[in-house]
């Protein structure tokens, strides 16, 4: 079913003689127009730069340039909420074209000289994505800093680290948190690389192959504050591999928050009791008075699943013929919303980390479990007793199993018996000189891990100090780019005003 041609409908009399079908409006045009808030400001800047570029290339005379820029600047004062966007016209650009035509008449047509609406849309979209990457980078740097702060604070908080949720080795909770700080910091270069693809200017690309308007693409990129010009106009306009990178980088940041949330939900449970999530991040049960649900952790975990789904969708839409619209149709909203969701989730995770109450006594109790010293005892049987590690491993394993089953403490007698059971011989004489009590001392075990990256307090403090430098450097880069971009847009608007008032 089709509609009569609406007033101002942008169609060719030769090929498109009626308005769009209601079903097409509902399934397609409405989706495109939903991106209007995302693109609104960027479309204005794209138009201003294009008109200035045409003028500086000698294509538009001063009077036409003045009229166009004055009209665009005036139209730019209308907020996205008040702008007359019309879903029947399709995407946001078409509504802007109709409104500019209403205001300026035939002169408005010069805005399209040497440029498709897709070019303006791509510029506006890159602006929007660039801005959201920068916001996510700030949130990620804040998470890394929060984790570093807590790791520094808890560098001496002994606990039994776990693998497969089974007791592994004595460590510190600071060392545990530092591992997440490392991970969060690694996402900053990923976001920076994604930002690099977004920060390439499509201006002056024409439809696919460029334009005969002799536009200075470097100048257009300068006006718009882009860091570089795309080397190939078709590539810059139509490929979306960079959007996969953008969404993947956002997914990485959220997966880190999710993995921490997965752990904390377990550590906060009655079975562990190692941490308590702040009350402001919890939710009560309406039925069970005793319940204190760590709701923020569920929000992070559910959000991670959503982000993974959006990444999968972005990858799937890349499977289209080249220079087609279908791989862009959903990308505008999905990629932007993925970045926004990732930012909210990372910010929430940061608050969780900052306010997390850590039960040092419960942590210490877990570390004091004698089975966590198993590796050190086996090491000592090798270093002092002269056994090979596999034999030492089996002897200690048998000893620990016996101690756990009988509720007794590991001692030299049980080690001796295990050695006889395993090898048929008693322990070597040198092995009997081992100071077992010292080996079972948690503090001594932790202090022995003083190598670079180890869990000793000294090592953790050193790690965090170096990590802060990396985070600060990455944060500084994003701050610098954001400042440069904002300065470029301010200069663009001033240049437009000067020409409009000349």
Please name the fourth-level CATH homologous superfamily of the domain at 119-196 and 237-366 and 455-488. Fumarase/aspartase (Central domain)
Distance between the termini: 50 Å
CATH topology of the domain at 119-196 and 237-366 and 455-488: Fumarase C, Chain A, domain 2
Helix proportion range: 55-70%
Mean pLDDT, to the nearest integer, reads: 91
Can you give a write-up of this model?
Strand 3, helix 7 and strand 4 form a beta-alpha-beta unit. Helix 2 packs across helix 7, helix 3 packs across helix 4 and helix 6 runs antiparallel to helix 9. The strands form 4 sheets. A two-stranded antiparallel sheet has the order 1-2. It has a two-stranded parallel ribbon with strand order 3-4. Strands 5-8 form a two-stranded antiparallel sheet. Helices cover 64% and strands 5% of the residues. The chain starts with 21 loop residues before the first helix and ends with a helix. Among the domains are: 242 residues, Fumarase C, Chain A, domain 2; 77 residues, Orthogonal Bundle (Ribonucleotide Reductase Protein R1, domain 1). The chain is mainly α. It contains 19 helices and 8 strands. The mean pLDDT is 91.
Question: How would you describe this structure in keywords?
Answer:
5% strand, Ribonucleotide Reductase Protein R1, domain 1, Fumarase C, Chain A, domain 2, two-stranded parallel ribbon, two-stranded antiparallel ribbon, 64% helix, 502 residues, mainly alpha
Which helices and strands, and how do they pair?
Elements: H1 22-33, H2 36-56, H3 62-75, H4 92-104, H5 117-153, E1 158-163, E2 166-172, H6 173-198, E3 200-201, H7 217-224, E4 228-229, H8 233-238, H9 241-267, E5 275-276, E6 283-284, E7 292-293, H10 295-317, H11 326-329, H12 331-355, E8 357-358, H13 360-367, H14 374-383, H15 389-406, H16 412-423, H17 436-439, H18 442-447, H19 457-501
Parallel strand pairs: 3-4
Antiparallel strand pairs: 1-2, 5-8, 6-7
Helix pairs in contact: 2-3, 2-5, 2-7, 2-19, 3-4, 3-19, 5-6, 5-12, 5-19, 6-9, 6-19, 9-10, 9-12, 10-12, 14-15, 15-16
């Amino acid at each position: 079913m089709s509609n009569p041609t609406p007033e101002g409908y942008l169609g060719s009399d030769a090929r498109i003689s009626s308005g769009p079908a209601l079903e097409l409006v509902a399934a397609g045009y409405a989706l495109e127009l939903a991106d209007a808030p995302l693109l609104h400001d960027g479309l204005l800047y794209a138009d201003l730069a294009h008109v200035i570029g045409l003028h500086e290339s000698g294509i538009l005379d001063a009077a036409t340039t003045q009229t166009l820029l004055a009209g665009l600047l005036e139209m730019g004062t209308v907020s996205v909420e008040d702008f007359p966007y019309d879903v029947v016209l399709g995407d946001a650009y078409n509504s802007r074209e109709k409104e500019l035509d209403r205001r300026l008449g035939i002169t408005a047509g010069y805005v399209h000289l040497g440029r498709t609406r897709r070019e303006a849309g791509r510029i506006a979209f890159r602006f929007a994505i660039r801005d959201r990457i920068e916001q996510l980078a700030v949130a990620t740097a804040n998470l890394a800093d929060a984790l570093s702060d807590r790791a520094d604070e808890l560098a001496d908080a002994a606990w039994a680290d776990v693998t497969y949720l089974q007791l592994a080795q004595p460590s510190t909770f600071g060392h545990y948190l530092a591992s997440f700080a490392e991970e969060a910091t690694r996402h900053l270069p990923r976001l920076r690389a994604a930002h690099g693809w977004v920060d390439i200017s499509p201006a002056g690309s024409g439809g696919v192959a460029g334009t005969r308007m002799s536009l200075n693409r470097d100048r257009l990129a300068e006006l718009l504050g882009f860091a570089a010009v795309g080397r190939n106009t078709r590539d810059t306009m139509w490929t979306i591999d960079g959007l996969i990178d953008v969404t993947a980088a956002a997914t990485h940041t959220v997966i880190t928050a999710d993995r921490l949330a997965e752990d904390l939900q377990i550590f906060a449970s009655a079975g562990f009791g190692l941490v308590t999530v702040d009350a402001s991040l919890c939710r009560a049960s309406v039925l069970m008075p005793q319940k204190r649900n760590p709701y923020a952790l569920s929000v992070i975990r559910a959000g991670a699943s959503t982000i993974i789904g959006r990444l999968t969708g972005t990858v799937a839409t890349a499977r289209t013929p080249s220079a087609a619209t279908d791989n862009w149709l959903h990308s505008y909203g999905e990629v932007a919303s993925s970045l926004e969701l990732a930012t909210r989730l990372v910010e929430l995770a940061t608050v969780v980390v900052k306010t997390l109450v850590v039960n040092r006594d419960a942590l210490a109790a877990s570390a004091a479990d004698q089975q966590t010293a198993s590796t050190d005892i086996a090491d000592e049987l090798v270093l002092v007793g002269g056994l090979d590690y596999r034999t030492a491993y089996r002897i200690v394993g048998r000893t620990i199993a016996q101690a756990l089953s009988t509720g007794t403490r590991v001692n030299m007698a049980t080690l001796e018996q295990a050695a006889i059971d395993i090898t048929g011989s008693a322990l070597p004489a040198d092995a009997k000189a081992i100071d077992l009590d010292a080996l079972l001392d948690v503090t001594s075990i932790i202090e022995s891990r003083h190598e670079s990256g180890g869990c000793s307090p000294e090592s953790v403090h050193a790690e965090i100090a170096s990590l802060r430098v990396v985070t600060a450097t990455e944060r500084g880069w994003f701050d610098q780019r954001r400042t440069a971009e904002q300065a470029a847009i301010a200069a663009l608007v001033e240049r437009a005003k000067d020409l409009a008032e000349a």
